[in-house]
Structures are given as C-alpha cells and as structure tokens.
TrEMBL record:
Family membership noted in the UniProt record: Belongs to the binding-protein-dependent transport system permease family.
SUPFAM superfamilies membership: MetI-like
Single GO BP term: transmembrane transport
Organism: Paenibacillus alvei TS-15
Name of the protein: ABC transporter permease
Alphabetized UniProt keyword annotations: Cell membrane, Membrane, Transmembrane, Transmembrane helix, Transport
Length: 297
C-alpha cells in the first residue's frame, strides 16, 4: 500500500470515527423510529386488537375517508398559508429596520427577538389571557373603543384559527429575523454605495439588490417556517385542545390525540407517514424550485 493510500485511509478512518456518534444517534432516534412507524402504519393496532393485525394500505384508505382527518389536514394547510408568508415578510421588514437603525439598534434587535426566547407554553398562556372574554387584554381594548367585551376568539370556530395564526406570527417573526439580519450583513456594502452614487431609490435598491441577494436565506427560512407550521402544537394543548369541534386541531396534535387518547397506534402511525411524506415533498419543491433563481454570490 502506497503512502498516499495510507494517508487517505487514515484521514477517512478519522472522519468516520468522528461521524460515528452522530450517525448512531440518527439511526437510533430518527431512522429507526421512521421505519418502525412506516411498518406500524400497515397494521391495525388499537384497543380492540391486543396483537397488531396486518391490513396493508387499508389504514390509508380509511384515513382519507375520515371527515375529522380531512378537517384537521385542511386546518394545517390554512395555518401554514396564514403563518409562513406573513411571518417571513414581517421578519424581513424587521431585519431591514434592525440593520439600518442608527439609534437603539441593539434594543430593536433584542425587542424583535424576545418573543422567541419565551417558551411556547408560556406564550400560550400569555395569549390565552389576551383572548379571554370579559377580562382579557383584547376584551378590555374592545370595551375601551365602545365594543362588546364578550368576544370569544378561542371559542368560536370562525375565529379560533385566526387567533392561532396571529399568535404564531408574533412568536416566530423575531426568530426568522435573525437569519435575515445575518443575510443582510453579508451583502457587500459597496453595492449600496454604488446605488447611492447613481441616485437609485430605496425601493429599487431593495428589489434589485437586497431581495435577490437574500434569497438563500429566504429558501432556508421558508423550509424552517413550513416545517414549524406542522410541528409546533404545544399551544393547542394549553389554549384549545383542538376545539371547538376540531376547528383549531392541527395534524401533529391529532396524531398525538389518536395515539395517546384513543390508543390507536396504527392510525397515528399512518398519519405520521403522511405528514413526513408531505413535508419531504413540499421541502423538495421549495428547494429545487427556487434553487435556479437564487444568487449565491
């Protein structure tokens, strides 16, 4: 064996040895549970069956005909549509302000990011107080402007999802702002100086320089925001528990409810497979669809 091959073998062995702990964790806590869930989705496993019974794809057929699943799935799609674009746009605007502000720059950054530092359970309790009829902050503001204080945002099917969307935007916009702020600070300043010398206005600078050069950040934030829209459900346990009449129930909460309240592990595994597949497809479409339009340099 030549010295070149010995050096390459030694380098590769060290690299794999360093990667081995992470790979073990991934295998034990990510890939094995995913495979186990896919296997369980093809079995009927509930309180009526002490031993799982193989049913093939029947769980998927039953699930797609279930009106509760259809309602929950629709809720999650609308929740993602309501939170992802708005929180990203607000985060971008906040980052522009925090990057350009001359006075109070540090304060503005901390103030924008602060909601993300609060645990989700605490955030849910804060907004539960805001939405409380008669005594909540929103009710007091309504009373102050001469409106009825009996509004029950969380108790009405037509308003509960909007209440959840507003709360999630408030929670996540500051988190996404950090990524946009990092992206803005990586843009060469001489581009802005050249635009200023040429007399180009702020709007054209933003649309022709800032937005195109922050597209890699936008792609990353979009994938994270979309994933969060399907996996953040702590607030539902505190605020609504999916009610009223499943109007605020989201897919992951419905999976939890099916598995640990109704003890139907087979159907919960089926919904998990659908959610994972959906997130993989949407993330792939985002990545491969936007990648050609992104300026990395």
């Amino acid at each position: 064996m030549t010295a070149k091959w010995k050096e390459r073998l030694s380098r590769n062995t060290l690299a794999w040895a360093l990667l081995l702990p992470s790979l073990l964790f991934l295998m034990l806590f990510t890939y094995y549970p995913m495979l186990k869930t896919a296997w369980l989705s093809m079995y009927q496993s509930d309180l009526a069956t002490p031993e799982p019974i193989f049913v093939g794809l029947d769980n998927f057929t039953i699930l797609f005909q279930d009106p509760v699943f259809q309602k929950v799935f629709s809720n999650n799609i609308w929740f993602a549509i309501g939170t992802v674009p708005t929180s990203m746009a607000l985060a971008f605007i906040m980052a522009l302000f925090a990057d350009k502000a001359l006075a109070g720059r540090s304060f503005s950054r901390v103030a924008f990011f602060y909601p993300n530092m609060i645990p989700m359970i605490a955030v849910a309790n804060i907004w539960l107080f805001i939405y409380t009829p008669q005594y909540g902050l929103l009710a007091q503001l309504a009373k102050w402007v001469g409106q009825s204080a009996d509004m029950n945002m969380l108790g009405h099917p037509d308003t509960v999802m909007w209440a959840m969307i507003v709360m999630m935007i408030w929670k996540e916009a500051g988190y996404f702002m950090i990524f946009y702020l990092a992206g803005l600070q990586n843009i060469p300043k001489d581009l802005y100086e050249s635009a200023s010398v040429d007399g180009i206005g702020t709007w054209k600078v933003t649309t022709r320089i800032t937005i195109p050069l922050t597209m890699p950040t936008t792609l990353f934030v979009a994938v994270v925001a979309l994933t969060n829209a399907f996996k953040l459900v702590d607030h539902l346990w505190i605020m609504t528990k999916g009610g009223p009449d499943n109007a605020s129930s989201l897919l992951l909460y419905h999976i939890y409810d099916t598995a640990f309240s109704f003890y139907d592990q087979g159907m919960a595994a089926t919904m998990t497979v659908i959610m994972i597949a959906l997130l993989l497809v949407l993330s792939s479409l985002q990545f491969f669809g936007w990648d050609r339009k992104i300026h990395y340099q």
